[in-house]
Amino acid sequence: MYKVLIPIALLLLLAGCGLADVGAASATSGASAAEQVKQGKQTEARVQQQVDAALQQDAQQRKGAEDAAAQ
Question: How does pLDDT run across 35-59, given as a tens digit for each residue?
């Protein structure tokens, strides 16, 4: 009987002082942090694509300049 009453009593005490809300806030901030990580990875992928495109464009310009110089 005490095994059931003790957790219930602790839960009521925590709810009474507001600590139960901390768990809900932590879950919300955890989901927010996960979303930020996801957005960060998407941004990183987008930037990497832009860098790759710039490097490719630079290589094409160099090749064009080398070809023009060779003629």
Answer: 888 999 999 999 999 999 999 999 9
Task: Please tell me the pTM assigned to this model.
Answer: 0.52
Among the listed residues 69, 50, 2, the one whose alpha carbon sits nearest the alpha carbon of residue 58 = 50
**Spatial contact of 36 and 27, defined as CB atoms under 8 Å apart:** no
Domain boundaries along the sequence of the chain: 2-70
Structure-derived torsion over alpha carbons of residues 6, 7, 13, 16, reported in degrees to the nearest 10: -140
Q: What is the dihedral of CA 14, 19, 25, 31, to 10 degrees?
A: -60
Check: CB of residue 69 under 8 Å from CB of residue 63. no
